[in-house]
Amino acid sequence: MAIFGRRTTQRLIDETATVITRRQINKIVDELNAMSTTETLSPDWELILLNVFSKIGRVRHEQTFEGNTKPDLFFECKTHPDVQFVADIRTVSDKGFKAANAFDALFDDLMNRVQSRGLRALSFSLDVGGNHREIQRGQFFIDPQDASQTIQYKGGTKTRLKMPGKARFEEKIFDKGFEQFLGEIEASPALKRVHHVTSKSEDLDVKITYDPNQMFAGGGHLEYRRINHLTQNPLFQALEEKASQLIGSKFNGTLGIVICDGGFTPFHSLPHFSTHTVEQVITYFFNHNPLISFVLTFVLKKASHDFGAPIRIATTLYSNTSFKAQEDHFMECLNEMIQFFPEPKADAFNALYSVKGKYPHEGGYITMREEQYHGNATRITISARIILELLAGRMSYDEFAERYGFVAVDPFPARGPNPFQISLRNGALITDISFQRGDTESDDDAVIISLDGPDPAVSPFRYPPIITTTISGG
Of 68, 24, 196, nearest to 127 (Cα)? Predict the structure, then answer.
């Protein structure tokens, strides 16, 4: 599962195959199947946008015009034929930020190293300092020596973590000092310890903490996924790249760029004095790219921070000056299209985690549910996939028990006993099994198991019931 359920995605594939060529749909399917290695949500977004646009108008994918590039989307609206454009679709993520600040890679490396030594990984924390005193947003100004009085932009100072690049982890962090640090923990595991790597000349400030009483592995760093510079950020660079490709198509009409949420923090961040907003980046891009008429963004928004909260697709249209007159009809087509989006199953960040998981080509699971009915009888609803994994040997009983909380898994206590085990102990056996197919938007089905007893096949013999007889006299 990525953004949408896998069964939903297959439906979208089958539908979209009727509006683009066989070669094009096969390419998209190959890219969807390779998402676990490419770690991008681009194929998901490309498929869904081709699909929903085709529901309200004529769509062409990678059509050739007079130029040497093939835009992702040519569209003509049914209800408003004057709304006609070509657009390129681009998914943006935090990859550009993370390339320069590899905190996640350092954290993963730390976890792997301590686990390989047999130490409790949850007792470790990683904290990395940053250049918080230097951060500032770029500013616009007029050079007094410029006779044209053109407004110029002076870039700000970007957020930077004080840590080495991945190629130097071994040399600068996991050196002899770190090995000594682990050796001391092994010798006295009840003591709290700190390994601090600092260097002003090399701009390093990395602190690894061991606390035996700590419940969770953690750490912290300065938020580096920020737009401090209008042009030196993943969004502006994506817009510039797509603008060049669109202009290269030589399409004689409206040109637009569709930007999709691939796990891009600035889409979800609150304004900050040291940062530029997404709107400011796009406005600056328009000032330097008058041939691009609009930028359309699709962002996955959670209704709340609660687990399982619904997710909606937020759509925003940014218009260049020349496109303002066409906005009304464009928005009418857009509002018509939005109703065809299926329900997202994950936001962009969790979707990325799922495609990077152990079984990226498989969807999610439903939880186990237990209920009493007809007196002492028990009915348990469980994922059909879980049962299949148990029978196939891919999941052991221990893993099964850990997944459903029947046993404690440090630091989490057990959530409750195994209901199957309780039923068997009480002499109850399975009396009925039924199958419940998931809905069209679900990636899992349910098996409903009914148990009742006690049954003499698995329980002590019982005294017979007392039968009361009435003797009537003559």
Answer: 196
